[in-house]
Amino acid sequence: MDPKKGIAVPPPVVSVIEKLRSCGHTAFIAGGAVRDIVMNRQRPVDWDIATSATPIEVASCFDHVVPTGLVHGTVTVVAGDMNIEVTTYRHDGPYVDGRRPEYVEYLDDIVADLARRDFTVNAMAFDPTAGELVDPYGGADDIERRLIRCVGDPAQRFSEDKLRMLRAVRFAATLGFDVDASIVDSARKLAPGIEQVSVERIMDELMKTMCAPKPGAALMLMEEMGLTSYLLPELCSEVGEKERKGLYAACDLLSPEPEERFAALLWPLGSQGSRRMLARMRTSRAFATAVSRIIEGATDLDDDPSDYQLRLAASRIGRDHLLPAVRLKQALRGDGERMLANMTVVEEKVRSVLAERPPLGISDLHVGGKEIMEATGLSPGPGVRMVLQRLLHEALRDPSVNNKECLLDMAREIGDEMGKAFAD
Question: Which CATH number fits domain 146-231: 3.40.50.360, 1.10.110.30, 1.20.1730.10, 1.10.10.350?
């Protein structure tokens, strides 16, 4: 686990650090980028620098500096094609609202700055020039042990920012680590405090957790930490813990798309119930719609759906939601290897059905309203729409009828039926 032999640090990051040092300051890479360097896991997207320089001093060292977070001592240095956040070493004042410190004090010591971080795996700094890792709290050892552990007392860390309880769950999920027992014990006592956190921040952590390779264990960890009843009260009021565990297991069987996995998690709430809960969590309307449609599709489908049933479901919920709905239906069966084998078979059937490009909406029919009126003598109005809907239903049953001649013949028959019905 030698950081000198892993991920290469981008030249602009090194350049910013060297410039700060040439101006008489100390500077290190800090935060999640260091964790990824130590793990040699992936090239970080965000490269953050911690420095003894104050924001004003940082600004004096560079030509292009943006004051993006002055209240926390952060500015963004534009270096080449990179935007690099540079933050002054600091100590946080008291956290009165359970989220933000009342004030920050600037420091000139990287070790003291790292002391305020949440978890040891995030409390390391790296000097890319010397290849030196600053790790006063054992983050590298915890990475070796695959363990999430707080810097100092978990109760203090969680009291400062209640969201850190959920962040522990998220890091365990995304890194595939265990959490230290002290985190679970402290969270059980402080879990009600999670209600102080905004739903937007909570949902951001839940989204990241649900995109992890195996979110089921993380959701079980939420239960163990006593968080679930506060984060997902609608689900807890609807089903017991045993049934929730089955939903968590189903999430692991699905693709790492948050819409699909949230559909599994919120399955007992139904299409409308999931919409209401996601509205409370202030997700986008598009996200809530996707989740509800996946649930709706899975509700209507058989375990082994016919081609017609697949086309009908795609027409109702949209072709993009059909495959997730089918996967959800199979995952909820929960019968192990047999289910996985059947999921593969049904997925292939779905792909085959969709590859034929069947008509799924009125706009896909090879006739339009004007042609229907000419063929049936109907005037513009709801009658034309009724004919088109009937034609779509027939085309869903048998896509081969979706040609102009056949559709117009059927339209005439439908028009005659409607005329007789009105006459009677």
Answer: 1.10.110.30
